[in-house]
Specification:
alpha+beta, two-stranded antiparallel sheet, elongated, Anoctamin, Anoct_dimer, cell membrane, chloride channel activity
């Protein structure tokens, strides 16, 4: 991290002194009871002091009645002299009770004898050996990790009546720290703090300011002065050393340890992000090949040479083009769009058509193979068809819903939201979402108006000749595109912050029953908004800008005064590419800054503030709970924004990849940084998250599938409408033979430009400077035909000498037919291939399905065997008692019944 101010040396010394304080503890003062959760609060508001104290006292008393043990730390013992801490410990009987209630899967006594099946994607033989050698530098050193990995046991849902069947070696090791924290949080979420129904749960207390935060503890510091970790180091330090450090950017992720420390929900996110990053290598390689081919071919491409060289035999570069705006804009030479034409060809050629089809199939392959990988992880982590949080009712739902009804499955009374109330809330939410989507469209419209206003200003006020080489690049159209893209990026980021709060309010208003429903509904709202927010302007450039501007003599106007902006002579493809680059790169740069710099600054500031207050309290220990309190809070929806960022990026990579083949390259570089950035954030900068159970990526998969299917349509229409690929092919195979003996692209530029008589301009469209080149008249020359007092514009319309003039030519309708045929054929072929791949690649490997069935059978067999052994042991004990009472030897069965008979007839 670079130094940010001149006093950073003082800050570093201060933090070193802070870390050298006595070692923090993870236990109560007795050194025996483990701290499962910590609650913190401050006394800042004197007016609310009595009310908050009453709620805290009532809540903590109810926690103790629920069986939890609390230990309070006064503010005089804290570093900032203002924060109270309440440490929570869950005793053994409460752990057993809630493990059964939450249906936690716990290990049985017998270990798995079968090895986990090998990855089906591995290649056998010499290729497999070569693969292992290639990835050897990326493999982590597992010597230290094996000591911390959990044994591979058969598991089943915990039942207190069958405790003897489970592998309970001692009370401290049976439940992992993450499981203890989940149980503590569940009890804290169900405990009341007041008489009203809404007075329930730690989350409501935090949101109302009674408590400031609640969190589980990290297992020690993440850094060590030792050059190499000891085997018995804490898991947080091990994860930092082997995963979160930037020096491990090229290493595979230790997913098993991430799961053990941060929980299944966080681990499945990093597994998905790592797999997505790994799959991006393939389109990155293909995209580089396409880009290099385009860079080389642009120097030999005939239409580009025609535009850039006015001495070329067709003299296309010397064509006089019609003004791009009314009055203030004058006529211009086609050669001034040379750079735009070259940029357009780099992103618009035959290779990009192939690459767009390749990316559509790649998206399908990625999703299909991820489903297989996800299922393998679910098996390996014992999460197949299991999610303990899926059916748990949210405390907020229980508190606000007054009606109850009988659950036909469980037979218990549960809160019930009436259908009328549910539909009313949902309709109100949908209307609000639609309103905010209209707000986004209005913002896009404002950017369009900005372009209409600023393009004429750039065309008149910017003297490009004085800029030298820069003026070759900074054309008015290019300046307009760049500034409008930056303005659009700023508007997008601002609207994101506003809508985020609106989406949370709407989702809470809908009263989802479970946390899974809450996250799915919130995800839907945010995705709809982000989709429109990030992609709407791209859709405008790709599909609407070139079609609504009109042609000379028939221009269309906004509000009757502003003429709609036209595409460059080379088309709108290069503008789409620039817009995509700026938004994608700017979004990633901003997100990385927010995720990397801001948490680091906040963490250091909190540490400095605590240390500054406690400089006179040398005896105060900088405890583990205070160190974690100084970290940034991990919100319950923290992973949501990580997923959303990647899903939006997936849209940039697939939806308009025909306009920017290097999008996978930017995504790959960003994701390599993102993995270590997120890892460093979770280990170093954030409080430890609650280890939620989760078996898949949830609704995000369906959103990715939606984007993958939409990408087929958008890329087909981008190539057909925005690209010049289809008109070029029509010219190549049909019209070039009229001029050249063999099919060629020579003469395409001249062929694609129509003629317009300058005397046909409306009064408001007539340029103020009718003769900018000092030629006496505006002329345009073609090899065989001469038109005087005319200018050229892109399109296929009849010349002013024809009758009727300015009507669509036959070549225009041929182009329309070719575009329509291309869209239909490409969509049907690609969708067919996608469905074929979906059919050929099963979601669950057959061997793994059989293995799961085998394990289910073995678990049931072990439980039956254990019950039988327990019964035989009981019979044996009864037999021993029978022998003491009866001197004559008998068979065990008869002896059992004799004992029962004696019990019935004995007078005692």
């Amino acid at each position: 991290m670079p130094r940010i101010c001149c006093c950073c040396d003082c800050l570093d010394s201060l933090f070193r002194e802070l870390d050298e304080r006595p070692k923090a503890t993870l236990y109560f003062h007795d050194g025996v009871r483990f701290i499962d959760y910590v609650i913190a609060y401050q006394d800042n508001d004197e007016h609310e002091h009595d009310k908050d104290d009453g709620q805290r006292q009532h809540y903590e008393e109810n926690l103790e009645k629920a069986g939890l043990m609390l230990e309070r730390e006064p503010k005089e013992q804290s570093q900032d002299q203002n924060t109270y801490f309440v440490k929570v410990h869950v005793p053994w009987p409460i752990l057993l009770k809630y493990a059964e209630r939450m249906k936690m899967k716990m290990p049985l006594k017998e270990e798995r004898r079968e090895e986990f099946m090998k990855d089906s994607s591995e290649i056998c033989g010499c290729v497999k050996t070569l693969y292992r050698k290639l990835v050897a530098p990326c493999v982590l050193n597992t010597e230290e990790m094996t000591e911390m990995e959990e044994p591979d046991y058969y598991t089943t849902e915990f039942v207190r009546d069958k405790m003897d069947f489970f592998d309970i070696q001692d009370e401290k090791s049976f439940f992992a720290n993450s499981q203890r924290s989940r149980i503590a949080h569940r009890i804290m979420s169900e405990t009341r703090y007041g008489p009203k129904r809404v007075n329930i749960g730690i989350n409501n207390l935090i949101s109302s300011g009674v408590y400031e935060c609640a969190f589980p503890l990290h297992e020690g510091k993440h850094k060590s002065t030792e050059s190499k970790l000891a085997i018995n180091a804490n898991m947080r330090r091990l994860l930092y050393w082997e995963w979160a450090r930037w020096g491990r950017w090229y290493k595979f992720q230790p997913l098993d340890l991430i799961r053990l420390y941060l929980g299944d929900k966080v681990a499945i996110y990093f597994a998905w992000l790592g797999y997505y990053t790994e799959m991006l290598f393939y389109p990155t390689i293909v995209g580089f090949i396409v880009f290099i081919y385009s860079i080389i071919a642009v120097w030999f491409y005939a239409p580009t040479q025609e535009i850039c060289d006015e001495t070329y035999p067709t003299y296309a570069g010397n064509l006089t083009m019609c003004p791009l705006c009314d009055e203030d804009c004058s006529y211009w030479k086609l050669k001034t769009s040379c750079l735009a034409a070259r940029i357009t060809y780099v992103f618009d050629n035959e290779a990009t058509i192939f690459f767009a089809i390749f990316m559509s199939l790649w998206a399908t392959m990625f999703l299909e193979f991820w489903k297989r990988r996800q299922f393998e992880l679910s098996y390996e982590w014992d999460l197949v068809d299991y999610d303990e949080q899926r059916d748990l009712v949210r405390p907020e739902f229980e508190a606000q819903v007054t009606k109850e009804r009988l659950n036909p499955v469980t037979g218990d009374m549960e809160p019930y939201l009436a259908a009328k109330d549910k539909y009313t809330r949902t309709c109100l939410s949908l209307v609000t979402v639609f309103f905010w989507i209209l707000v986004v469209i209005a913002a896009v419209f404002a950017v369009i108006v900005y372009r209409l206003a600023i393009s004429a200003i750039f065309a008149v006020s910017v003297d490009l000749s004085s800029l030298g080489a820069i003026g070759t690049f900074a054309t008015p159209a290019m300046l307009t595109t760049i500034t409008a893209s930056m303005l659009s990026l700023v508007i997008i980021m601002c609207l994101n912050k506003v809508y985020e709060k609106v989406a949370i309010w709407l989702t809470n208003m809908e009263l989802p029953r479970t946390q899974t429903e809450f996250e799915d509904r919130f995800t839907f709202k945010m995705f709809c908004f982000q989709f429109v927010n990030f992609y709407s302007y791209l859709f405008y450039i790709a599909f609407f800008k070139g079609t609504i501007s009109g042609t000379p003599g028939h221009y269309t106007y906004l509000f009757g005064s502003w003429r709609w902006e036209q595409c460059d002579a080379g088309g709108c493809m290069y503008e789409l590419s620039i817009q995509l680059i700026i938004i994608m790169f700017g979004k990633q740069l901003w997100n990385n800054f927010i995720e990397l710099v801001m948490p680091w600054l906040q963490h250091k500031y909190r540490q400095w503030k605590s240390q500054k207050v406690s400089t006179e309290m040398k005896d105060n220990e900088y405890t583990r709970w205070e160190q974690d309190y100084d970290l940034n809070q991990f919100t319950e929806m923290g992973l949501f924004y990580e997923y959303l960022e990647m899903v939006i990026q997936f849209g940039f990579v697939t939806l308009f990849v025909a306009a920017f083949p290097l999008a996978p390259v930017l995504a790959l570089v960003n994701n390599i940084i993102e993995i270590r950035l997120d890892a460093n954030k979770f280990i170093c900068e954030l409080r430890r998250p609650l280890a939620h159970k989760c078996s898949d990526i949830g609704a995000w998969y369906y959103l990715l599938e939606f984007i993958g299917n939409l990408a087929v349509v958008t890329n087909a229409f981008t190539i057909a409408i925005t690209s010049e690929a289809i008109p070029k092919l029509v010219y190549y195979y049909v019209y070039s033979l009229d001029i050249y003996p063999s099919s060629t692209y020579n003469g395409y530029v001249n062929n694609s430009m129509s003629y317009f008589n300058t005397s046909d301009f409306e009064a408001r469209s007539m340029p103020n400077n009718p003769d900018p080149f000092g030629e006496g008249n505006i002329t345009t020359c073609r090899i065989h035909i001469y038109y005087f007092n005319t200018c050229r514009y892109p399109g296929y319309l009849s010349p002013p000498t024809a009758s009727p003039k300015y009507e669509y030519t036959t070549q225009y309708w041929h182009n329309i037919a070719g575009k329509l045929a291309f869209v239909i054929v490409v969509e049907h072929v690609v969708f067919f291939l996608k469905r074929l791949l979906d059919y050929l690649i099963p979601d669950r490997p057959r061997k793994l399905r059989d293995k799961i069935k085998r394990e289910h059978f073995l678990v049931q067999h072990m439980l039956f065997k254990a019950e039988t052994q327990q019964l035989l042991k009981q019979l044996s004990q009864d037999n021993e008692g029978t022998r003491e009472l009866s001197p004559a030897p008998r068979s065990s069965t008869k002896q059992f019944y004799s004992v029962e008979n004696e019990k019935e007839t004995t007078p005692f």
